[in-house]
Design a protein that fits this description.
This protein is mainly α. Helices cover 69% and strands 4% of the residues. The protein has twelve helices and five strands. It has helices spanning 3-31, 54-70, 75-99, 106-122, 143-163, 170-189, 192-212, 221-238, 250-255, 257-272, 285-291, 296-321; strands spanning 34-35, 50-51, 129-131, 138-140, 244-245. The strands form two sheets. A three-stranded mixed sheet has the order 4-3-5, with no helix packed on it. Strands 1-2 form a two-stranded antiparallel sheet. Helix 3 packs antiparallel against helix 4, helix 5 (143-163) runs antiparallel to helix 8 (221-238) and helix 5 crosses helix 10. The longest helix is centred in the N-terminal third of the chain and has 29 residues, at 3-31. It starts with a helix and ends with a helix.
């Protein structure tokens, strides 16, 4: 694909999100769709009501840009769109409950996230196997294993990005770094569709970060965080995981290293303490660093740096493979 299409995708997605966020923020205040500070919740760091409408700008900016530049109206794109709408809908309901000081049940969110992942699998985008490092033969996994690994990957990445959205600029920045890494990987592998999706995701997240950097003027809520996680998972599945070797299977895992490793620790800890996995608390690394005495900006900077280092490691791993 010509370089101009990647540049156009980045610029168009950036400008759409940048233009939509201010009016959506005003609408949020009119509808009282805002995240209010609560003294009884340890995770609530902000002190002023923050609008929760950035998710719609991100969603609109991504799909308008991708459809205009890629002109891909395939079954895979339809599954991606429908899955994104489902996540946006259930995320909005969850966010609305939170604006009223209530918790939305975890089961409906779980079922919708699994449904979105199944749609992607049924559209033909799946983890099918890998190359044997000794024989060079492509090993096709059993269909049941293909299904399970695909669903677990999409659901897992969707969840960890959502769990990481606990501090101004954090989830958006980590997504931008991961998407930029997956863009480089897709380019190196000659996968233009994945590269286009990845650079579009970089554009929407950087535009969002203009308003979400500390101190944040807008949040994307669960609706936006799950959508970003879903998109990252699908991009990796369609790009980095496609026809991978055993060693290169670690490339997307390293590219998403900070949210994956941090939230694996959190889930294991909650499991050992017999707490519900979906029960929000302050055990993520950003809260622990905050308790250690770092400021919000310092915490975000440290985690950005770690994410960049892991992403560079994944690119080095890619270069070793080629």
């Amino acid at each position: 694909m010509i370089v101009i299409f990647y540049v156009l995708s980045f610029l168009l997605s950036f400008f759409i999100v940048n233009a939509l966020i201010p009016p959506l923020a005003k609408l949020a205040f009119r509808l009282d769709f805002v995240d209010r500070p609560r003294k009884d919740v340890e995770r609530k760091i902000h002190r002023e009501p923050i609008p929760l409408t950035a998710s719609y700008a991100i969603f609109i900016g991504f799909f308008i840009t991708y459809l205009v530049t890629a002109r891909d109206f395939s079954l895979e794109t339809l599954a991606l769109f429908v899955g994104g709408v489902l996540l946006l809908t259930i995320g909005t309901i969850d966010d609305w409950y939170k604006t009223k000081g209530k918790d939305f049940p975890a089961l409906p969110k779980f079922l919708v996230q699994i449904t979105a992942a199944v749609l992607v699998y049924l559209s033909g985008n799946a983890f099918t196997g890998f190359y044997n490092p000794f024989s060079g033969e492509y090993l096709v996994l059993p269909v049941v294993l293909q299904f399970l690994l695909t669903i677990i990957w999409i659901f897992g990445v969707t969840t960890v990005i959502n769990f990481s959205d606990g501090m101004d600029g954090l989830a958006g920045g980590l997504t931008a770094i991961s998407a930029a890494t997956l863009f480089v990987v897709a380019l190196a592998k000659g996968q233009s569709a994945s590269a286009l999706m990845a650079i579009t995701l970089v554009g929407v997240t950087l535009a969002y970060l203009r308003y979400n950097k500390p101190p944040a003027k807008i949040f994307m809520g669960d609706a936006g965080a799950t959508f970003l996680g879903f998109m990252l998972a699908v991009i990796a599945l369609d790009g980095a995981f496609k026809q991978a070797t055993v060693l290169s299977l670690f490339i997307p895992i390293l590219a998403l290293g900070v949210p994956i490793f941090d939230n694996l620790f959190v889930v294991i800890k909650r499991f050992m303490q017999r707490k519900p996995i979906y029960q929000a608390d302050a055990t993520q690394v950003h809260y622990r660093l905050l308790k250690a005495g770092l400021t919000q900006k310092q915490v975000v900077a440290v985690l950005y740096l770690v994410s960049v280092c892991l992403s560079l490691s994944s690119i080095i791993l890619l270069l070793i493979q080629t």
